[in-house]
Design brief:
315 residues; alpha+beta; D-Amino Acid Oxidase, Chain A, domain 2; 3-stranded mixed sheet; 7 helices; 25% helix; globular
Length: 315
C-alpha cells in the first residue's frame, strides 16, 4: 500500500504542479536482532522499493555526523524520503473544491450514531447532511463518535515533536547532508533534517499518554523535551546543546492491533468507518482513499485485515 501511495503522490505532484514528496533518502539504524527490519526486507523487495543493507563500517563512512554506537547494521532507501502533511492536505481540499466538491467545516453532534435508524447527520451549525453513503474518516475523534463499535479498540495518544536549530555554517545536519532517519532501539526515534527550514525534527514514536483531541492542551512535556535533548546529544554529538526552535503536539489514532479500520458500521450499511492510522496513516492517504472509494462506490467488502470483525474473533 505504501508503494502504491508513493506512485499516487507523484502522480498528483505532476497533475497539480505542486511539490509534496522530498526524496532525500531514508536510513534505518538497527540495534539488536533487528527482527522488525529483517522482516521488512522481503516486503521492500516485493514492492520494488530500492534499498541497500549496509554494515556498521559503511554507515560510519557515509554519515560521519552520526554516532553509530550499538548500531549493528542499517537499511538505506535512496529513493524514499518525507512528505509535507499540511501542504498536501490543503491541496487536496483546494483541488476537491475546484473540481466541484463542497467543503464545510463543522462538528458532528455526538450521540445516536451507533443506532441503525438515523436519517441525516446533524451538525453543530444546525444544519443536517443527508446522503446515500456516509464515510467517517475522523482521525482521533473516531473513538468518541462510535464509542461502542470503535471505542474499545481505539485510543488517541499524545506525541511530542521537536525542532532544533542546527549549527550556523554547518550543512551536514540539513537536507542534502542527512537523510530521513529512524533508530529502532529501546525507543523508536526518528527525524527529518531541513523540513522547510523549520529545524532538525526529532520525535519518539513510542506511544504517549492518552489524549483528548478536542480539549487536550497542546503543550509538550518537559520530561519529553529532556529525553529528546539527551538522545540528540548522544546520537548526533554535533547537535549537543542545540536550541529548541519549535515544538508541536501531534496525536496518534491507534487501534489495538495498529492496523487500519475500513468497514461498514454493523448497524448501518450506509455508514463507513475509516481510520486507525496508528502513526503511519498519513503517507498511505492516496492509496487508502483509492481503496475506500472503490469499496463505497462498488458496494464491495474490505479485506478481513481491516474489518471490525477482527476485534470479535469469537462472534
Amino acid at each position: 500500500m505504501a508503494a502504491r501511495a508513493l506512485e499516487l503522490w507523484k502522480d498528483h505532484e505532476t497533475q497539480w504542479k505542486q511539490k509534496f514528496f522530498h526524496p532525500i533518502g531514508v536510513l534505518w539504524m538497527v540495534e539488536g536482532d533487528g527482527e522488525f527490519e529483517r522482516g521488512s526486507l522481503p516486503l521492500l523487495k516485493d514492492a520494488g522499493i530500492p534499498f541497500e543493507q549496509l554494515a556498521a563500517t559503511e554507515l560510519v563512512r557515509r554519515w560521519k555526523q552520526i554516532n553509530f554506537e550499538k548500531v549493528e547494521w542499517g537499511i538505506w532507501e535512496p529513493q524514499s524520503g518525507y512528505l509535507l502533511a499540511r501542504a498536501s492536505a490543503q491541496a487536496v481540499v483546494e483541488h476537491f473544491v475546484a473540481e466541484g466538491g463542497e467543503y464545510r467545516q463543522a462538528a458532528i453532534v455526538p450521540g445516536g450514531l451507533e443506532s441503525g435508524d438515523w436519517k441525516g447527520l446533524p451538525l453543530s451549525d444546525g444544519s443536517k447532511l443527508v446522503a446515500d453513503r456516509y464515510v467517517f474518516a475522523c482521525g482521533p475523534w473516531l473513538g468518541n463518535l462510535f464509542p461502542k463499535t470503535v471505542g474499545p479498540h481505539f485510543v488517541s495518544t499524545k506525541q511530542d515533536v521537536f525542532f532544533f536549530g542546527t549549527p550556523a555554517g554547518i550543512d551536514c545536519y540539513e537536507e542534502g547532508g542527512l537523510p530521513v532517519w529512524a533508530d529502532h532501539s529501546d525507543h523508536f526515534m526518528y527525524g527529518i533534517p531541513g523540513n522547510q527550514r523549520r529545524g532538525f525534527k526529532l520525535a519518539d514514536d513510542t506511544r504517549g499518554p492518552d489524549f483528548d483531541p478536542t480539549s487536550g492542551q497542546r503543550l509538550v512535556g518537559e520530561d519529553r523535551l529532556a529525553e529528546a535533548r539527551r538522545y540528540l546529544a548522544y546520537r548526533f554529538p554535533g547537535m549537543k546543546g542545540a536550541p529548541l526552535v519549535e515544538s508541536r503536539v501531534c496525536q496518534y489514532e491507534n487501534t489495538t492491533d495498529h492496523n487500519f479500520i475500513v468497514d461498514r458500521h454493523p448497524a448501518n450499511q450506509d455508514v463507513w468507518i475509516v481510520g486507525g492510522g496508528s502513526g503511519h496513516g498519513f503517507k498511505h492517504g492516496p492509496a487508502l482513499g483509492e481503496m475506500v472509494a472503490r469499496l463505497v462506490l462498488k458496494n464491495e467488502t474490505a479485506d478481513a485485515l481491516y474489518r471490525l470483525a477482527r476485534f470479535f474473533p469469537n462472534r
